[in-house]
Each structure stands twice: as C-alpha cells, then as structure tokens.
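Helicase ATP-binding domain-containing protein
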Amino acid sequence: LRPYQEELVETAVRGKNTIACAPTGSGKTEVAIYVAMSHLNQRETDKQPARVAMLVPRTPLVEQQKLRFHTYVRGKYYVEGFHGSGLKGSSRRDIVLACDIVVMTPQILLNMLKSIRQDERLYVCDFSLLIFDEVHHCTKDHPYNILMQMIHDYQGPKPQTMGLTASLGVAQVPNEESGMAAIFDLMANMGATALASVKRHVDILAQWVPKPDDGEWLFLMVFNKEGATCCRNGRRRRIGRAERVVREANNVRLGALQVSAFTGSYARHPPRLR
C-alpha cells in the first residue's frame, strides 16, 4: 500500500466499522482488498470462520472488482462474483458459501437473505465482513440502506462493515450544516464508528490523484479542541459545534488535531459558507 492508503485501513484492520473517504483515483479498491485479506488472515489465525462480501452498486462493477481481487489473492482465496443475470437458486447459494470472497450487487444479497426457500437462503451470520463500494448510496430506499437496516435488526453475530466513497454524500448540499448532517446520517446508517481519511500523507495523495476539474471542490475538515473549521480552496469557515456533534452522535474519538478530506461536485449548487 502507498502511505496514504495505509492511513485509510488503520481502523478497519482493527475491526472497527469504518467509512474510508478518499478522492477518485486514489486506489480505494486496493484499500478494500488489503482490509479483506487482513480480515481473512486474522480470522484464520483465530480459528474463526470468515467470509467477505464486496458489494457494488452497478452490475458492470461486479466483474471488474472480481478481477481486481483475483490479481492479489489468486491461489490463496476463492473469489467469485454474481449479478442479476448470474446463477439462480441453490447453485448460487452453494457457490457463495464455498467462497472466501464474493463480489455482488446488494440486491442479489438482499434477495438471498429474504428468500423463503431454505436451499436458496443466506443469513447475515454467513458473512464476517461486508465492504460497500460507493457507500454514499446508503440512504433512503437504496438496497445498501435496506441491507444495513436488516443487519441492525439482526439478533445474531453481525459482520464488520466498511464503506468506500469519494463524496460522503455531500455533492449537492446547500450549506455546511446540511453537509455535516449528511455525513452523520451516512455514518449512522452504516453503523460506522470511524471515518478514515488522509491526514498525514496529503502530499503523497496529491501526487497520485488527478487534479479536480472546476466542478470539484476539495474540503478539509480540521477538528481540534476549539471546534471544527471547514477549508475550501484555502478559505476557512467556522462550523459550530461540529466536534461535539461528532463525539456525541457517532462516538468518534478525535485527537488533538484531526483532518478529514473529501471531495464533491458543487458546480450547480455551491455551498453557502458563513
């Protein structure tokens, strides 16, 4: 991993439910693969069963992400992928249960979790880690959110969750309060206790990530004991009570100084920063 990618995996490899936020092109898939392999290795060491599901919101991404996993884990772990036109019924269930890592769309997993046929059905406890690509979709009636509601309600052992995103759902927010609320809602929906972003190696990140176009803004959330400051293109604006809200609503531990970076398109609806 590159140094900034190592930052993004720190909390997830310790077993915390994490949302990792980094710009497009920064290598978040490699972050997911590293977390998945670390999880499987640790569970094997602890002699615990393990199975990872990588969820992607669009069918073309299934084969793409499956091939990326194969590049790194071939020969060590069994990887398979499913989407709406894949195998049906018990054949699919049997293959999923034989996998170490399975890539699928969330609707496929939902259908199998809800199936009334025993030979088709999966259970939440069949998975030890769920990774959500483009996790900013985990809102309202999106399959991601429906799936997480099922997990929240499930009374048995719950899998660890990790989300990957470049925007945190703040792409069209009208002001900073709405942006913070969107972040808090996303973390609550995901049951996340950690928000991972690049802090110590921003300079290295900048060497690997393409420069944003005019419609893409870079935000830095700087948290300290006095509150939180939002920096947009070098302009600082105060966000009142943000640190307290993060601590109380999401139980996130902040050090003396924490910087979170995220990007979003504001070409049509620029935020009103007071």
